[in-house]
């Protein structure tokens, strides 16, 4: 069972990396978002370092949505989805494995890149660590919520923008607690831990929700 | 392989508000090949998808005896219209993935040799012709060892030689006690035990 699910996660990750350069495009998009905002806001370093965590979080949120539309759509159009249904493993776990593979290929690179992009925003070292930590704990939640959107739009031909519209409202709590945990280190005096733990909880809850809701959406899409 | 028996009773299928077929019953055991024929739209693929468990029948029941603990899904191998192969991956990667997911024990090279693709395992599937992709999908039947083969027009895009090969593989499967349910337009390269003709009522 574990080996089978690891195979699904591995295949999803490698597919994302090999076709359309999922990780690279996401990273470049992240870089683009983070670098254009200082041009709009102006060269006020104090302001930038204060809103820096928020910029990184919004950039990561938007970059996470890239490539999600293909998560199940490709499987549907080449017939793999039928065989995934018939593998004998619970569809819920297969959905989770696919989400994990997608996160490894698209979410994790964003987390790794965040400290370097944070330098562009004049974020202090301690805050950089905090932002990276919150992204590590929070981007899985973004991918998982996006997985439900991807499963829901699988039967539609082009779901890219629809996924964003569906998913973004549900990503707001993740964004709020992610940014507030990261900002607490810079602005204070609120403590770091409570919002961070809520962020971790959001990731765990969305893992359960994504598994159940994603599998239900895929089942109802069978024809 | 255990002596499986697949029995369907009074199956009916609906697509929207249209009844595709009704009152389809059959019972097949080890070594049986059941051919399903009928005009386009008669419900051949629908019947196969119902047997696979991908669709729920409108009425009727399907019983597998002895029933596997994990459900009917673990006994069937469904080969549909689409090959379920990733164009970006090589033949070997594609087959190895499905083998790991389905938990088969078949040898990749041997299976590819059987379908006439020996030595091509390193090629990306995206470079293959339609017939070659079909052969890879047939090789997957061999790599993953499941007793019930559900073949939806398995000879599509196959040349005469590959068709004969498929016939040999089906014969081998039935002598090992396997069951085959095939939706076909042209005669199968093997003699079916029984034939169901769908779509006479709908016409």
From TrEMBL, chain A:
Q: Which domain of life is it from?
A: Bacteria
The annotated topology with respect to the bilayer is: Multi-pass membrane protein
Look up the record and give one Gene Ontology term from the biological process aspect: cytochrome c biosynthetic process
Q: Membrane-crossing residues?
A: 21-41, 47-68, 103-123, 129-152, 159-186, 192-218
Q: Which GO terms describe its molecular function?
A: heme transmembrane transporter activity
Keyword set, alphabetical order: Cell inner membrane, Cell membrane, Cytochrome c-type biogenesis, Membrane, Transmembrane, Transmembrane helix, Transport
Spell out the Pfam families in the cross-references.
Answer: CcmB
One of the record's GO cellular component terms: plasma membrane
Q: Where in the cell is it found?
A: Cell inner membrane
| Homology family | Belongs to the CcmB/CycW/HelB family.
Role noted for this protein: Required for the export of heme to the periplasm for the biogenesis of c-type cytochromes.
NCBIfam families, sorted: ccmB (TIGR01190)
This protein is called Heme exporter protein B
Taxonomy, top ranks, is: Bacteria, Pseudomonadati, Pseudomonadota, Alphaproteobacteria, Hyphomicrobiales
UniProtKB/TrEMBL annotation, chain B:
Q: Has UniProt tagged this entry with the keyword Cytoplasm?
A: no
Enumerate the InterPro entries for this protein.
AAA+_ATPase, ABC_transporter-like_ATP-bd, ABC_transporter-like_CS, ABC_transptr_haem_export_CcmA, P-loop_NTPase
Keywords from UniProt, A to Z, are: ATP-binding, Cytochrome c-type biogenesis, Membrane, Nucleotide-binding, Translocase, Transport
BP GO terms, sorted: cytochrome complex assembly
| Residue ranges of domain ABC transporter in the record | 6-201
**Keyword Membrane on entry:** yes
The UniProt GO MF terms for this protein read: ATP binding; ATP hydrolysis activity; transmembrane transporter activity
Which PANTHER family does this one have? ABC TRANSPORTER I FAMILY MEMBER 1
* Family per similarity comment: Belongs to the ABC transporter superfamily.
Give the protein name, as stated in the record.
Heme exporter protein A
What is the organism of origin for this protein?
A: Bauldia litoralis
């Amino acid at each position: 069972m574990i080996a089978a699910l690891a195979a699904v996660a591995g295949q999803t990750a490698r597919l994302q990396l090999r076709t359309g350069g999922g990780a690279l495009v996401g990273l470049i998009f992240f870089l683009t978002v983070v670098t254009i905002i200082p041009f709009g806001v102006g060269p006020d370093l104090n302001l930038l370092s204060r809103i820096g965590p928020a910029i990184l979080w919004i950039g990561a949120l938007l970059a996470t949505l890239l490539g999600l539309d293909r998560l199940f759509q490709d499987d549907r159009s080449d017939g793999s989805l039928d065989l995934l249904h018939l593998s004998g493993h619970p569809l819920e776990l297969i959905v989770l494995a696919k989400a994990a593979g997608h996160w490894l290929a698209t979410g994790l690179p964003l987390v790794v890149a965040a400290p370097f992009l944070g330098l562009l925003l004049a974020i202090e070292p301690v805050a950089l660590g905090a932002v990276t930590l919150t992204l590590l704990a929070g981007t899985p939640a973004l991918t998982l919520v996006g997985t439900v959107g991807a499963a829901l739009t699988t039967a539609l031909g082009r779901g890219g923008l629809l996924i964003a519209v569906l998913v973004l409202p549900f990503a707001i709590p993740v964004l709020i607690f992610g940014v507030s945990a990261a900002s607490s280190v810079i602005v204070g005096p609120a403590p770091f831990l409570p919002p961070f733990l809520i962020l971790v909880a959001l990731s765990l809850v969305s893992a359960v929700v994504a598994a159940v809701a994603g599998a239900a959406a895929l089942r109802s899409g069978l024809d | 392989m255990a002596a499986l028996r697949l029995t369907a009773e009074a199956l009916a299928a609906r697509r929207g508000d249209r009844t595709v077929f009704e009152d389809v019953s059959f019972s097949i055991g080890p070594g049986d090949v059941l051919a399903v024929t009928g005009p386009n739209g008669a419900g051949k693929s629908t019947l196969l998808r119902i047997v696979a468990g991908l669709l729920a029948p409108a009425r009727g029941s399907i019983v597998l005896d002895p029933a596997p603990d994990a459900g009917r899904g673990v006994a069937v191998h469904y080969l549909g219209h689409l090959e379920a192969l990733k164009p970006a991956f090589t033949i070997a990667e594609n087959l190895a993935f499905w083998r790991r997911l389905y938990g088969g024990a078949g040898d990749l090279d041997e299976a590819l040799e059987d379908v006439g693709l020996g030595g091509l395992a390193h090629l990306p599937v995206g470079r293959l012709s339609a017939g070659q992709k079909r052969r890879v999908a047939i090789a997957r039947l061999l790599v993953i060892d499941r007793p019930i083969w559900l073949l939806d027009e398995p000879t599509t895009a196959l040349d005469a030689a590959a068709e004969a090969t498929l016939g040999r593989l089906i014969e081998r499967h039935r002598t090992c006690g396997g069951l085959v349910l095939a939706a076909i337009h042209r005669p199968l390269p093997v003699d079916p035990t029984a034939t169901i003709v769908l779509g006479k009522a709908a016409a």
